[in-house]
Amino acid sequence: MPGRTGGSTREDTFERGRDFVRRDARLLEQRLFAVVFESGDPDGVVDAIRGYRNADGGFGHGLEPDKRCPDSQPLDVLFALETMDAAGTMDVGLAQGACGFLASVADERGAVPIILPSVAAYPHANHWAGDDFPPELNPTAGIAAFLHKHDVDHEWRTRATGFCLDELEREPLAEAHTIRAVLVFLEHVPDRRRAEALAGQVGGWLRAARWFKNDPADESYGLGPLEFAPDPASPWRELFTDDEIERSLDHLLSEQQTDGGWPLAWEPPSDASTLEWRGIRTVSALRVLTAYGRC
Predict the structure, then answer these.
(1) How far apart are CA 87 and CA 35, in angstroms?
(2) Is the pLDDT score of 239 beyond 80?
(3) Half-sphere exposure of 226 (CA within 13 A, CB side)
(4) For residues 24 and 5, what is the distance between their CA atoms, to the nearest angstrom?
(5) Which of 4, 69, 167, 239 is buried most deeply by CB count within 10 Å?
(6) Residues paired with 39 in a beta bridge
(7) Residue 42 to residue 35: CA distance in whole angstroms
(8) Which of helix, strand or coil describes residue 268?
(9) Long-range CB contact pairs, 50-54, < 8 A, 24+
(10) Cis check: omega of the bond before 139, within 30 degrees of 0
């Protein structure tokens, strides 16, 4: 892995990150970069995502690069919707087709697991090993969130929304990835009375949550403040102090590698997966730093 860059100007940070994306990122992240930073056509992102679609309406083929399974996975549906949203678009046909796939793998409540057992037959990261992935809020809430945000209606969305609200009222959350998905869900779910009653509680659970990392100097894997408040206008920016945000931004800047990309804090299943993830993380880092005026 290339070393860190040390100090650099805002322009250098962006230009070196751009060069990494152009040189080493996969087509999807190149198209997303073009939309976010170069007034590119969002249809290009949709077209790239379409290449990962299966006949059942779901997405697979390593769209989320930590597993190389071609079969459709709920995690890949979440990745597809989140990427289209980042491009400021949503293909309703693709999204509704994905809902059909989700309905076929959901339990009676509408909840879906983050991955299906088919992942095990293909190379995958260690954190996707085993079979302990029951239907739950992550990814159900995250997927439902983007469907609500973009007004994509489907019978599965109705069932999933009811499940998420009921589950949130049942017990506190203890895991940071789930809390991140739930916060996006609460931002967009139409039932504002229940959502607003839950929002304050969910934010309060974050500090003690597993995988929440508030010390940017800790190089182990975890989700820090910028994963929950990726821009100053985020409704969840108020969960963090100015000092926490600034320290996180300083650390994010310092992580840029000599090749212009950002590193990973986990071990993907292959060199190709690593490079794909670095492209994803580099586009994300540049979006955050630009939003906060750091590059």
Answers:
(1) 6
(2) yes
(3) 22
(4) 18
(5) 69
(6) none
(7) 6
(8) coil
(9) 50/91, 50/94, 52/76, 52/80, 53/94, 53/97, 54/101
(10) yes
Beta bridge partners of 136: 112
Give per-residue pLDDT as tens, 74-119. 999 999 999 999 999 999 999 999 999 999 999 999 999 999 999 9
Q: Which of 141, 54, 153, 159 is nearest to 103 (CA)?
A: 159
For residue 216 the two structure tokens come to 């940017």
3-state secondary structure of 32: helix
CB of 163 closer than 8 Å to CB of 111: yes
The radius of gyration computed from the CA coordinates of the chain, to the nearest angstrom, equals 18
- CATH code of the domain made up of 10-291: 1.50.10
Report the percentage of the chain scoring pLDDT > 90: 92
Domain boundary assignment for the chain: 10-291
Question: What is the model's pLDDT at position 1?
Answer: 64
Rounded distance, CA 271 to CA 174, Å?
A: 32
- Residue 64: phi and psi, rounded to 5, are -90, 115
